[in-house]
Amino acid sequence: MKNDYLDYGRESRRRSAGKKTAIAAVIVLLVAAAAGLTVFFVSSYYYEVIEEQDESAYATPIPISVAETMKENSSLEQTGVYGLWYSEEEPGGEDETDSIYHPEEHLWMGDFKDERKRVTAKGIYISASYMTAKFDKAVELVESTELNTMVIDVKTEDGYITFKMDGSETAKEIGALTNSIPDIRKTIKKLKEKDIYVVARIVSMMDPKLAKYHPELAVTKKDGTLFKDNAGKAWLNPFKEGVWDYLIEISKECVNVGFDEINFDYIRFSTGKGMNDVDFSADAGERTRIDAITDGLRRICEVIKPMGAFVSCDVYGAIVTSTVDAKIVGQSFYRMSQYVDYICPMVYPSHYADGYYNLDHPDMHPYELVNHALMDANKVLYMIDSDGNKADVRPWLQDFTASWIRHHLDYGAKEVRDQIDAVYDSGYSSWLLWNAGIEYTRGALLGS
């Protein structure tokens, strides 16, 4: 998920950025004229998303100016559980939301006695190869700065698992087990001896490995062929119970070897081209995409929390505000937060299109973007009943330079620190840094 962007078409956009920009501009002007709007800012990804979806399922929405939306939805009473910004004309307005979602009549996991010790996590992502080849370097960075957490790859984007698992028969059957981390128990033991909080990162729905051996669990097109995203990778079908059984199987093994927390990435529906050729109706019934993801997370939490580990999930930052995006990817910030312990919006400034939050080029305003996004997250959490579960917000922050976008900054110590300060100023205390190359900006971090 960390390598996707809000336009949902980053692969094609990188290859033909000029063409895409021109097309997006033309579409924006045409829609504005048709709707009679004079001034508005619309994310460039918005039109690409609608274009790639089945328009019969997502009625053509009327675009709303970011500036106008911020003005009109400034009060908590105007928020919606599928996204803070919506209009009566677009799917996901209050009436539709209310007709789909009904809060539970009893307190969920009301008998669960929570004896887990929470940690204010300040962490970094670490790949399995880096963990084995540069273990001492990774530990030194954490020990010498304010960091105290490592998020380590367990299940990758290719569907492989980075250590040997005794209890996952499915992983054994499909040949997903590797020895990338030779002695996982020993590795975790060393980290915990240094008071490092250890998180297992599980790529959830992107899984070419399981899809190959169990196509009945994968997303398929209407003609029965396997769906593959823009990168040629197959995805699992969140409406299939067997998919969640597999994730639970892996998660239990992670808890058994000592991980403090299980983090689910790519826990969503694919947004790749070709999704309009997919028909989920036979598996979905009356359930929505948001139902599928939320219900699956709930099942995981019911198993993993009593085992003593925490559960977290990564989500697109845009789902906090965008009804359309929430429904397409199946992620509801409001509903997911009622089950997981930590919800981790990826609020990388480079993920947001020009004009978002009334910022000309969001990547050039790291503090403002993160502050806006997290304040909106706070509005969503405000709506959750205090008697039930309410996730802590722990955002992923950008520690990389998005050189592929036209208007960007070279992210260094100031830009990374600005985002961290924005987290604190928004009322939150935990955060995670993402850099796919595992090259983090030491200068942005306070000394230990």
Rg over C-alpha atoms, rounded to the nearest angstrom: 21 Å
CATH architecture: Alpha-Beta Barrel
Shape: globular
How far is the N terminus from the C terminus?
A: 30 Å
Q: What is the share of helical residues?
A: 25-40%
Unreliable residue stretches: 1-79, 87-102
Determine the CATH superfamily.
Glycosidases
Largest sheet: 9 strands, parallel
Q: Would you count the extended β strands for me?
A: 9
Helical segment count: 17
Structural overview:
There is one protein chain. By secondary structure, the protein is an alpha/beta fold. It has a single domain (122-444), classed as TIM Barrel (Alpha-Beta Barrel). Helices cover 36% and strands 10% of the residues. It is built from 17 helices and 9 strands. It has helices spanning 10-15, 17-35, 44-52, 66-72, 94-100, 128-133, 135-143, 169-174, 184-193, 208-213, 241-256, 281-284, 289-304, 323-329, 333-336, 366-382, 413-425, and strands at residues 122-126, 149-155, 197-203, 261-265, 310-316, 342-346, 392-393, 396-398, 431-434. A 9-stranded parallel beta sheet has the order 7-6-5-4-3-2-1-9-8. Helix 16 runs parallel beside helix 17 (413-425). The longest helix is centred in the N-terminal third of the chain and has 19 residues, at 17-35. The radius of gyration is 21 Å and the shape is globular.
